[in-house]
Amino acid sequence: MTSYLVMLQTNSNQPFIFSSPRLREQIGASFEITLLSHWVKEEAKELLSLKKLPSSFWVSNSSGKVIVHFRDTDGDPEKLAKQLIRKVTLRALTDAPGLDVTGVFVQTSSNTVDAGDLNALDSVFLEYSLNRRPAAARFPQFPFLERGSESALPASPKLSEDDCREMRRYARKTLNVPLLTDDDTNFSPPTQTDQDAQDSLSLPSRVKRAWSRSARRLQLQEVVSRWSPDDPETWPKEIERLNEDPFQLEGAFQDLPQAANSQDTLTSLSSVGVIHIDGNGVGAIMRDLGEAFKKTNNTLDKLTKPPYLRMLNPCGKMPPRFRSYSGKLPHFRSYSRKPPRFQWFIMEVNYRLDDIVKEAIARSWADVEYLANDDDIDLVPVVPVLVGGDDVTVYTDGRYAIPFAEAYIRHYEDLTEKDGLLSVLATLAGAPKKGPLTASAGVAIVGRNFPFHIAYDLAEGLVSRGKKLGKKKGEVPCSTIDFHVLRDATVLDPEDTLEEYKGRTQRPFLVGHYAQERIGDATTTSSEETPTAKPQPLSSWARILQAVAAFDGKKPDDPTQTTGDPFPRARANRIVKLLADYVTVSKDDKARSECLGYVLKDNEQAFATQEQIDNDKQKPDDEKQKSDDVKRITKRCKHPICAIRLEWTDAQENARGTKALVKALGPLPSKTRLDDPDEHTEDCIEQVRWLLDLIDLSGNLPDGYLASRINSDADGADPEEAADNPTEGGAQ
Predict the structure, then answer these.
(1) Domain that includes residue 111, residue range
(2) Has residue 333 got a pLDDT over 60?
(3) How many whole angstroms separate alpha carbon 498 and alpha carbon 481?
(4) DSSP E strands: which ranges in 575-654?
(5) Residue 202, domain member (yes or no)
(6) Is 392 helix (H, G, I), strand (E, B) or coil?
(7) Confidence (pLDDT) at 732
(8) Three-state helix/strand/coil letters over 135-162
(9) Cα gap 641→643, rounded to integer Å
(10) In terms of Cα–Cα distance, which of 492, 197, 219 is closest to 361?
């Protein structure tokens, strides 16, 4: 008995998506990657002459990667494997030009699928990938060919009517996507705008733009179906309200000269948030599925219904009943059409993780909708451009980007913790016991029209920086949030940009379920009006928001009320500038404990004594009142550490709002000590390192967010049921 495993995978997904600066093309490119699963399903049905594929066919199915299983009961498995690869790669060439799809196959060690077969498949794929031509080589680059605008590829003619008709038919019949709230099956909305037809565009650009309408519709369909799963009649109106037309949506993020006088474009955003989120430890789980199966096999028959809308596992609703795992994968009859238990498990992990990611996006979207309504904003554009496995990339209004990222992590952890399968697998991701999976989020806040690919690289760099802290060796893994407000439009290297801010902030932040274990517990301070009130524990993120509230001149426990004493912005900027000088000082010179902040005027190398400082302070400030014998002999030391000490001390003594700010900063962790417990810096340095974070957070969080999150965190529930459980009522 022989069988073959076939893996088809899209390659270089990020360059494919971000090869164009246009939002429509990125939406369409992301959608084209998801078509791989549909192509495999359609071509396999035709090869096997079946209306429905057997459950034993599927091994793994995620965005951009599919593994299937051919057995000798299906025919010649090797021949079928080769034919499937040929047909699917041909579909990619014709339906998604520029998309790089690789197909490989291996013979299995038995008629079943085990972890060794998956490892062998990965090895063959890596070897083949190293020796194949890139997808861009398919397009000729002759001097006499016109280049497409916004592309290095040659221009192509506009899509024919037959092409457009076929794309619309496929969207309707196969994907169930009636475009642009179209209920009339006889009406076919255009797949390309008149402007696109006239422009000089490459073939990949034309196809991506044409698919963007279907892609956006599917995004919104996915979200509203999770908001109101039991009320499908409301979906069309909700979809229409959420900006279905990608051309109009693009106008909010980018300048569109051809639409300058159009009334249909959305209000331009003042800033754009590019959010990238990656799960922690998910790769480790997927790399060793054999160990994951061994750990969970005895629990698979006891799985309860997960707390989210989910797709049905094509390998069956319940796992095949075989004997308990004992070191070897369980045997099953070779002629059975049911998949082995291990195969069912792989698909179940794929589907549960995919559904949780989509659910977390939908719930975070609902949270942002609630905040926008509270701020009297009609609509906040939210555009997922990459949803693959545990990877998520979303564009939105810069003011709502950090709230979206924080909400996603909160919902992702909550959903995985309540999932009977993934919560057990969390231990393979480094968790000490059954519990939630964690994730790292990076948020790049940039100006409108800023190149998306650079902003994405910046967000990806922020995620990498967060993972170093969140997945620190010897510590429990923890979710993180990192962000950067880009003020320089000339940035070319995101890594250099982040390096410039090293030592000047407390980012990235530890957040979520395990943050308390990493940074210690803390409680809110009871309100002065109710000193007997029982303090409530606050999450690490809520503590940071309390500091933001104090910085803005609001009460930390109740940001809806103001104190009227914000920390002076001019002083904050001055201290931040001093801190930039401080980080350039050598490590041996940073302590400078012998200096009290003043030096002698006639010898700047000589430190003033406390007596000399006190005597000078008693002398008049007005130079006209000074005689020769009462002139001051000391002056402020210009050394960065001394300048910071004096500035911060002066702020605490004289600046309004500083005492409240220092009190709020008290429970916050020191990144220096999180990075290295043996490394100690002065409290004043650790406190002023929060100032740039507070400046940026204060300017990039919407009104009402502080109060919403602090109050909901202290109470243990979100302020609005709709925001807490968007699958019941949604963001109406």
Answers:
(1) 3-139+146-268
(2) no
(3) 15
(4) 598-600, 603-607, 634-636
(5) yes
(6) strand
(7) 32
(8) HHHHCCCCCCCCECCCCCCEEECCCCHH
(9) 5
(10) 219
Q: Show the tokens assigned to 689.
A: 């390192």
Contacts of 118 (CB under 8 A, 6+ apart): 5, 67, 289, 290
Query: What is residue 395's three-state secondary structure?
Result: strand
CA dist., res. 139 & res. 131, Å (int): 19
Strand arrangement of the beta sheet that strand 598-600 belongs to = 603-607, 598-600, 634-636
User: For residues 674 and 518, is the Cβ–Cβ distance under 8 A?
Assistant: yes
Beta bridge partners of 4: 70, 107
Single out the residue of 494, 498, 486, 482 nearest to residue 449, CA to CA: 486
SS3 444: strand
pLDDT band at 353 (very low <50, low <70, confident <90, very high): very high
Q: Give the total number of structural domains in the chain.
A: 2
- What is the distance between the alpha carbons of residues 202 and 2, in angstroms, rounded to a whole number? 45
Residue 449 lies in a domain: no
Whole-angstrom distance, CA of residue 345 vs CA of residue 350 = 9
Q: What's the CA gap between 283 and 503, in Å, rounded? A: 30
Structure tokens at 237: 């109106």
Closest CA to 192 of 179, 170, 210: 210
Write the pLDDT tens digit of every residue in 486-532.
877 676 677 888 888 888 999 999 999 999 888 875 444 434 443 44
Interval 430-467: pLDDT, tens: 898 999 999 999 999 999 989 899 999 999 999 999 99
Of 215, 242, 268, the residue that ends a domain is 268
Tokens of 538: 């606050």
**Which has the closest alpha carbon to 32: 81, 86, 87, 94?**
94
Residue identified by tokens 């024919």 is 160
Average pLDDT over residues 571-586: 91
Any residues with CB less than 8 A from the CB of 529 and at least 6 apart, and which?
Answer: none
What single letter denotes the amino acid at residue 540?
A: S
pTM of the model: 0.90
Omega before residue 566 within 30° of 0, cis = no
Residue among 534, 531, 536 nearest 521 (CA): 536
Q: DSSP code of 335?
A: T
* Most confidently predicted of 159-163, 401-405, 574-578, 623-627: 401-405
Q: Which residue has the higher pLDDT, 1 or 556?
A: 556
Query: Which residue bears the tokens 């892609």?
Result: 215
pLDDT of 129 higher than 90: no
State the chain's maximal CA–CA distance in angstroms: 108
Is residue 144's pLDDT more than 70?
Answer: no
| CB neighbourhood size of 395 (10 A) | 25
Phi first, then psi: give them for residue 277, nearest 5 degrees: -130, 135
The answer to the question of residue 516 being in a domain is no
Q: Domain for residue 641, yes or no?
A: yes
Task: List residues bridging with 598 in a β-sheet.
Answer: 636
Over residues 587-629, the pLDDT tens digits come to 777 777 788 888 888 888 888 888 888 888 888 766 555 565 6
Residue 122 predicted with pLDDT over 70: yes
C-alpha distance across the termini of the chain, in Å:
57
In order of 369, 436, 480, 484, 573, the CA distances from 280 in angstroms are 27, 11, 10, 21, 35
Which strands, in side-by-side order, build the sheet including 3-11? 58-62, 65-71, 3-11, 100-107
Helix and strand numbers (H, E) in the chain are 27, 17
Q: How far apart are CA 160 and CA 166, in angstroms?
A: 10
DSSP three-state, residue 67: strand
- Strands (DSSP E) along 378-492, which ranges? 382-388, 391-397, 438-447, 479-485
Q: Which residues are 383's β-sheet partners? A: 395
Cα–Cα distance, 62 to 53 (Å, whole number): 17
Residue 185 has pLDDT above 60, yes or no: no
Give the integer Cα–Cα distance in Å for 404 and 117: 40
Examine the pLDDT at 714 and tell me if it is beyond 80.
no
Strands 479-485 and 438-447 come out as: parallel
